[in-house]
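Field reference: sequence -> structure
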Amino acid sequence: MTSKIILVLASLFLITYAHTQNEMTKYEPTIEFPFGRYNPEAPKQLKDFEPLIGECKCKSITRKKDQTWAEAVDMTWRWKYIMNGKGIQDETLKADGRNSGSIRQFDKDSMRWNVHYYSSVGTPVTLPTWHGNKKDGKIILYRPQKAPNGMNGFYRLTFYDISKKGYKWVGEWVDEKESITFPTWKIECVRED
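Structure field:
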């Protein structure tokens, strides 16, 4: 009788454990959903990035030191849900080896995106962070940054022309009133799937 009770308790434990594990990873990437899925318990703003989830082939163009535009670099931009569908991670894989990525979380208290950027070029103690929201079909993020001449402003990142076919992105310095803009990095992406 005792062995039957132990067997029943062990079975209940395994069933409970398996169910808990399934709930903890239900929205993570799988063979069926290689880029994960949105968790309905997450802030609805995670859907701002939903059209970008997956993989696109892109062209990345940055300014050279003489301020002219460099040749385009081939790049793959991959997006997926993480943290069981409650956050988003992206990574860029560039032909020049300068790879990077971000962890994106929506903060319900401040009602804005917090985007933490990392790169293979350097390993800062604290990751640079951008903040922002979706407005008029664009996702716009800001980080305070002075211009080379000392003028206060921001480095602004904008995702735009977002569709099922792809999207565009621009990184640019803007003054505090956003009347002066100076783009330093542009990316155009096309979805191949």
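Note: The helical segments are 2-25.
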